[in-house]
Amino acid sequence: TQVHIAEISDKTDVIAIKDAVYDGDFVIADITRHSTSDRTIEHIIDELRQVAQEVDGDIVQKGDDQLIVTPTGVKISREKLGRD
After folding, report:
1. Does residue 81 carry a pLDDT above 80?
2. Taking a C-beta distance cutoff of 8 angstroms, is the pair 8, 29 a contact?
3. Which residues of 27-57 are buried (b: 16+ CB within 10 A; e: fewer)?
4. Contact in structure between 28 and 3 (CB atoms under 8 Å)
5. Least crowded by CB within 10 Å, which of 1, 4, 29, 55?
């Protein structure tokens, strides 16, 4: 298992991310090239959400600049550490 860093500048970048997740790896993707209201990034997030569901992984958007996608059996906590 590896953690990959990716940058999403257009829809073709999604292919490598999907391949990595299907192979059981984590991906942290930089989406700063798109605004969160951009239709392209909405499409990309939907496509990656579908991949996460297919492999029983998880996906979360961290702020306006990152997506984290996990492989099979790995869930992402929505709570920050150190908060009681």
Report:
1. yes
2. yes
3. bebebeebeeeeeebeebbeebeebbeebeb
4. yes
5. 1
Cα–Cα–Cα angle for 43, 44, 50, rounded to 5 degrees: 90
Report the amino acid identity of residue 72: T
CA distance 32 to 76: 21
Alpha-carbon span 25 to 79, nearest angstrom: 22
Express each pLDDT in 27-52 by its tens digit: 999 998 765 556 888 888 999 999 99
Token code pair at residue 58: 């998880």
Distance CA 54, CA 42 (A): 18
pLDDT of residue 10: 81
